[in-house]
Amino acid sequence: MKRSTAHLNKDSKKSSGAVARRDFIKTAAAAGAGLVIIRPESVYGAPANSAIRLGIIGCGGRGNSVANDFIRNTETRVVGLADLFDDQLSATRDRFDKVAEEKGYAKISPSQIFKGSKAYQELVQSEVDVVLITSPPYFHPEHFEAAVAAGRHVYLEKPVATDVYGCKRILKAGERAQGKISVHVGFQTRYAPPFREMVQRIHSGAIGDIACAQAYYYSGALRRKDKEGMSPTEARIRNWVFDKVLSGDILVEQNVHVVDVCNWVMQGHPVKAVGTGGRKVRTDVGDCWDHYITIFYYPNDVKISLNSTQFLKGWGDVAERFFGSKGVAEAHYRGGVRILGENGWDAGVDNSLERTMPEKVKAFIDSIKSGKFENQIQQGTESTLSAIMGRTAAYTGKEMTWDKMIKSNERWDARLNLDSLD
Fold first, then answer.
1. How far is CA 194 from CA 125, 333, 366, in A?
2. How far is it, in rounded angstroms, from Cα 307 to Cα 259?
């Protein structure tokens, strides 16, 4: 497999500069889940007693997993699929046809199966109410723009993009969606009941003034998906998680979850970052780094360290700890959520994420059926850009500020000919 090369291009067009000149992303501080909730008339809603029709762009593992959460926890049925590869379309179709049979729904129509580089355009114009975007993050901006233009509700997986230019495209499309459709971003940790309770307590003063924090995402290696005989383009797409340009690297693609929790707790984004990292263990595939060591600086000089790996064997953990004047709050994916100190509290759970996806997808579907549309693009873009700032600081070995990053309008070019896969 050929390794990808990130070709960076500084684009200073006035249209994007206008976005950069204003403070365009602020967290909704008062809401526990960071939501922007509005109440206009429904323009593409579904009757309260009908099944929402879901279409998937990107039929890989994540697309199948999230779609399964939708159909198991809400009145939703999968009616459309779009992907570059026949095997992924076939496997996904078989899976959800079986579920449809169990629930008494019709199987996915052959006319609703779309393959190729333009498949996403056909899907958003088809008979779907909701578009689930789980394609490689590099393609999120164009897929999201198409779904919004078609008036479809959107569940957009994180990160929203892999570069600053892509984030601005997402934000602009999100502004067009405001008040017309519901848009959720895949930061599901904000819907985990133990995390929500902890954050509410922090915001109510349980640990006092936050002085500093520790976050980490220690993870094992991911499975390789390329096979002998594949073209370099297909192998690169199959292994997109190991490709800097397609994924954003591990800090932006995976570690962004803990960055999002930090922003949630701090009720805003970091103002600068420094960092380092590299490739020391997982050097056999792609060009992503396998570890990062970063420090994010938040307002009031609150520093948060973030360490991560993506190669460990035998142990791993994901957690955040916030150190305050009255105590310490800590949250693990597995290992509990608690506050220690003057206002002690324990969520009494080990698997903190057990109810996360059911709560997340229910909230999204409820917003559609009620017509009380939710738009999470500001929050999702803010967290993605925060991670991009840390990545940029680590790549360059220099301090990166929020303002400098936004003004850079950094744009990555994947240099892919997707038509060759049609």
1. 39, 10, 21
2. 11
**Omega into 141 within 30° of 0, i.e. cis?**
no
Phi-psi domain of 151 (left: phi exceeds 0; alpha: psi -120 through 50; beta: other): left
> Which residue, among 141, 146, 185, 194, has the nearest Cα to 165 in the 3D structure?
141
> Angle of helix 61-73 relative to helix 86-103, nearest 10 degrees?
10
Query: What is the per-residue pLDDT across 358-408, written as a single tens digit (0 to 9) for each?
Result: 999 999 999 999 999 999 999 999 999 999 999 999 999 999 999 999 999
Q: Are strands 210-220 and 327-332 parallel, antiparallel or unpaired?
A: unpaired
Phi, psi of 242 (to 5 degrees): -100, 5
CB-based contact 153:45 (threshold 8 Å): no
- Give per-residue pLDDT as tens, 73-98: 999 999 999 999 999 999 999 999 99
183, 256, 331, 367 from 186: Cα distances, Å: 10, 11, 19, 15
Domains present along the chain, CATH in parentheses: 13-189+363-381 (3.40.50.720), 193-352+384-413 (3.30.360.10)
Residue 119 has pLDDT above 80, yes or no: yes
Would you state the pLDDT for residue 376?
Answer: 98
- Residue 382 vs residues 25, 162, 386: alpha-carbon distances, Å: 6, 13, 6
157-174 burial, b for 16+ CB within 10 Å, e for fewer?
A: bbbbbbbbbbbbbbbbbb
pTM for the model stands at 0.89
The answer to whether 319 and 337 have CB atoms below 8 angstroms apart is: no
pLDDT tens-place string over residues 47-73: 445 799 999 999 999 999 999 999 999
Does the pLDDT value for residue 41 go beyond 90?
Answer: no
